Amino acid sequence: MRSPDVSGSEHSDVVIVGAGSAGCVLAEKLSRDGARSVLLLEQGPSFPDVGIRDLRRLPVGADSRYVTTIPERSGQVVVRGRGLGGSSAINGGYFLRWHDTDFAGWPAGWDRGTVESAYRELDDPDGTMSVRPAADAELGAAASAFESFWSARVPVRDVAHRWPIVGLNRVLGNHLGGLRMTAAEAYLRPAAGRPNLRVVTGARVGELLVRGRTVTGVRTVGGADISGGEVILCAGTLGTAELLLRSPQGALRVGQTVRVGEHREIQVGYGRRGVEELKPLLQTVVHTDDGVEIRCYSDDFDRYISGGAGGRPVIGIAGMTRAGRGEVTLGVVGPGVVAPGGVIPAARGGLRLSLAPLDPADAAAMWSRADDVADMLASTEFGDLVVPGSIVIDPVIRTSQHAWGSMPMGETTDGLGAVDGVRGLRIVDGSILPTPGRSGPHATTMMMACRIGDDLAAGDHA
Ligand SMILES: Cc1cc2nc3c(=O)[nH]c(=O)nc-3n(C[C@H](O)[C@H](O)[C@H](O)COP(=O)(O)OP(=O)(O)OC[C@H]3O[C@@H](n4cnc5c(N)ncnc54)[C@H](O)[C@@H]3O)c2cc1C
Asked: Rounded distance, CA 147 to CA 350, Å?
């Protein structure tokens, strides 16, 4: 994979910004036609090494060069993957489809057959992302106790089936030989060497170039202007929002803030007896009929992130269709200038995420599930694992690192991600997910990119 500097006089038929879960898929599919020149710009480093892809690590600590950190109003930070593979290179390796009912609000063209075939490219037994469930013998002690508890109480999905159910779902993981199968390994690596695909790492795009209502290219933070027949933003929900906010906003019809959805999470912690060899972070979950995902994390997060001693694992209770809301803004640096239209910031600073308080009914449903989880941890199934008297429901409501839906298909983008009222601009990443989904977003973001990439490659768009 070549990574020369990008120069100011370049033109490509397609300029893709961001080599994450979606961007790698688009780059591979659009460069199959040797007559189409594709430039993929990624702000982070090249392919992550095997130490980063090791499933026993969550490489998101303060010293990681593979993540970008973004402040959240509560004082926490959220992280996003950077470098070839983006968040797919550093995430939990959970690769579950959404439920088929989650597609009800999607625009025309996303029928069950289309969605199924795009998912199958990724998660068939011989699919691109090397997806499979853990075998019974591979389950950790917490996952075994969790499945033993819930299998007596809720329906259980056959582990060979790909569509999740309301009930107990053994997680499908995207990994091979203990390493995350990243979007870059699955899609970019095989395309390396195509003369019409140029991948430039360490190239951060600062804004879009806009003439009238047409996006004509991008400008890097280094000041290089690159023109493109079409610009496709795959910078992730927060990265894409930042680019829209930094670009001429009137033309793009974006205001001073961009709204996002987020899966908020309550955690119930417990003291754990004994230490076991680390397993993949998330091997099994329950999806409830009221839109909550109960996540059985295999061990203490600290063991995955910093290699700490562990001993304090958590169970997560995430509001999935009971989604949280938030917005992203650019911080303001320096005093504003008063103008007839209001105050114009003197300079725009870094990206900020602000999560809104949860809807009270959603919060109540999640706290009630947290009580159920505390009861589960006190049950006989967890008797060998949980230190008596150690179960604590954390009062802080956290995030799942899943922001999505700032430019939803069917509202501000069409069913293939083209931005309404703007020529030459398409968005294909978590930003365009139009509904929250009962499972995590990774498999569905890639599924979306597969289908859109195939349609664009075939020229099926006007
Ligand atoms: C720590 C963590 C754990 C997660 N675990 C799971 C999980 O187990 N299962 C699940 O379903 N989901 C999980 N997710 C969410 C899932 O990984 C993401 O939703 C998905 O990868 C998003 O894909 P994307 O293509 O939208 O963006 P990303 O994969 O984040 O890609 C965006 C890319 O754009 C680049 N970029 C951004 N701005 C610029 C710019 N200005 N110029 C150039 N390049 C730019 C970034 O560096 C990055 O490489 C997790 C997320 C995180 C952060």
From this structure: 43
Q: Yes or no: say if 71 and 77 are a contact pair by the CB < 8 Å rule.
A: yes
By CB atoms closer than 10 A (0-12, 13-18, 19+), residue 213 is middle
Counting Cβ atoms within 10 Å, is residue 126 exposed (0-12), middle (13-18) or buried (19+)? Answer: exposed
Q: Which two tokens stand for residue 341?
A: 């239209």
In the chain, what are the domain boundaries?
1-134+171-258+405-462, 137-165+264-322+358-399
Ligand 1, CB within 6 Å, residue ranges? 17-23, 41-44, 60, 79-82, 86-88, 90-94, 204-205, 234-237, 239, 243, 401-402, 429-430, 440-442, 445
Residue 445 CA to ligand 1 center (angstroms) comes to 10
Give which of 227, 228, 226 is closest to 5, Cα–Cα: 226
Q: Does domain 1-134+171-258+405-462 have CATH number 3.50.50.60?
A: yes
H, E, C per residue of 59-99: CCCCCCCCEEEEEECCCCEEEEECCCCHHHHCCCCECCCCC
Dump the DSSP string for 396-423: --EE-S--B-SS-BTTTB-TT-BBTT-B
Q: How far apart are CA 4 and CA 452, in angstroms?
A: 28
Q: Is 390 helix (H, G, I), strand (E, B) or coil?
A: coil
d(CA 337, CA 46): 41
- Per-residue pLDDT 10s for the chain (462 aa) are 444 467 667 899 999 999 999 999 999 999 999 999 999 999 999 999 999 999 999 999 988 999 999 999 888 889 999 999 999 999 999 999 999 999 999 999 999 999 999 999 999 999 999 999 999 999 999 999 999 999 999 999 999 999 999 999 999 999 999 999 999 999 999 999 999 999 999 999 999 999 999 999 999 999 999 999 999 999 999 999 999 999 886 677 777 889 999 999 999 999 999 999 999 999 999 999 999 999 999 999 999 999 988 889 999 999 999 999 999 999 866 655 555 445 555 556 789 999 999 999 999 999 999 999 999 999 999 999 999 999 999 999 999 999 999 999 999 999 999 999 999 999 999 999 999 999 999 999 999 999 999 999 998 664
Determine the atom of ligand 1 nearest the C-alpha atom of 404: 19
| Among protein residues, the one whose CA lies closest to atom 46 of ligand 1 | 82
SS3 241: helix
